Amino acid sequence: MIAYLEHFVHGNDTESRPDDDVTCLCKALDLQGSINCGPTEIASKDFGGLQSVKPLAFIRPTGADDVAGVVRAAARSSNLTVAARGNGHSINGQAMADRGIVMDMRSMEENFQVLWINGSAYAEVSGGALWEEVLKRCVLGFGLAPRSWTDYLSLTVGGTLSNAGVSGQAFRYGPQTSNVTELEVVSGKGDTLICSESENSELFFGVLGGLGQFGIITRARVLLQPAPDRVRWIRLVYAEFEDFTRDAELLVTRQEGDSFDYVEGFVFVNSNDPFNGWSTVPLDSEHGFDPTHIPSNAGPVLYCLEVALHYRNSDHPSHIDTVVNRLLGRLGFVKKLKFQVDLSYTEFLLRVKQVEKQAQANCVWDAPHPWLNLFVSQSNIADFDCFVFKKILKDGVGGPILIYPLLRSNRTSIVLPEGGEIFYLVALLRFTPPYPKDPPVEKMVAQNHEIIQYCLHTGIDFKLYLPHYKTQEDWKRHFGNQWTKFLERKASFDPMAILSPGQRIFTRIP
Ligand code: FAD
Q: Which 3 state secondary structure label does DSSP give 68?
């Protein structure tokens, strides 16, 4: 079987493979799922649309046994690599494998269940489940929900846990990686292991935020809480960056019950530009943005704090108004530029699905997305605003420029800026029509590069989130004092560097 696969690694025509051979390969791998050695467009592309490499085979495993069998087979070969592909929503080919094996984690059987352990509820979910599926099953079936989310939920459990998984709840509960208590993982040696804080803890903390380098997550145990019924979603406009950050930091450092349940924010252009300006702020079509309320000394960009409060159907509307007004009373936003809507909890969590529908209709969902995600230390965020938001990005990026504070808490592989308790997520979510309607992708990539170079040259304390580098030297710099630990874990759990080759951190060892 290995000879069969390697035969193809060495450059044979994969497109004319007879079906019989594929059946043989399935048998040799003892695979319950299926294998496709023909053209596999889905495995050669991702949301970023910037990279494309051809895998040798695209395998649809049905469970952990299939995953382990494939990894063990790859380990017996001299050069095969294996990439778990979640929903392929990476930007820079992280879930691809150049002439390696790509495993479609979405095809894993769901086996969803809710467990109660010592009075707490947990969802047992497949590593390939989409968070939107987890949401629906938990809320509709049990009135429960995970505590920490991403903004967009068509992402897989294994894909976000391999990075961090952050959104407006992370200030309170930490990223999604801090909200799982047990994982089933197939290591790079093909061993299927259960890991948690107390069992195989090196593997557990390594895999969380581990960029797919130590194991493939086949199952996760996700902590749940009672799901609220409804959400009041509010946007507040600021003209001054220091007012915006002061209020955002106030909200993320208050105790539960004395703050909102969700805190995010974004930068927008102080103009009537339809994609980057004032009209991107209102939450419904009934409430327009009246620019006459903008203070006359405002700069080229403005800031929007986005907050949300959970409540129950049984809560009286006047009670919600009182709580919201008390929390807003402390904040220094432009008073006439406040927008709010009430919606169900699931509508709120699925809000980006609406954006996806519009973007698909406008043909910008499938266009390339040279996105840039950074964690920037609180101590440098004002400098970052002066140079990056107010100068380089003063005309916007054709999509949201997110900025919100998070609190440090980390035992995982996630790499954070060095100093301070508070750091900011900054995300440039570029949605632009394909060239020639908009600037060529190269220009947007060059702008990302300019921002990174500015940060490096001025000593801004930052780290890339969803990182992408071409050389191991860059990776070493990225990991800083966590590099040695990362290398040790790699040597323990994936010594031949079989897993997640698309991250380009290690080279396969024959
Ligand atoms: P993939 O892109 O398929 O894989 C990502 C990496 O994880 C690859 O290296 C892959 O090999 C590895 N991997 C995948 N599955 C597994 C597994 N089961 N076990 C081990 N390794 C695995 N991120 C946030 O934190 N917050 C957000 O709000 C957010 N919003 C987003 C919105 C959009 C529209 C998009 C496109 C991305 C967003 N992201 C966000 C980024 C997202 O979390 C990452 O891109 C994530 O990797 C995508 O998940 P995926 O399932 O598509 O993973």
A: helix
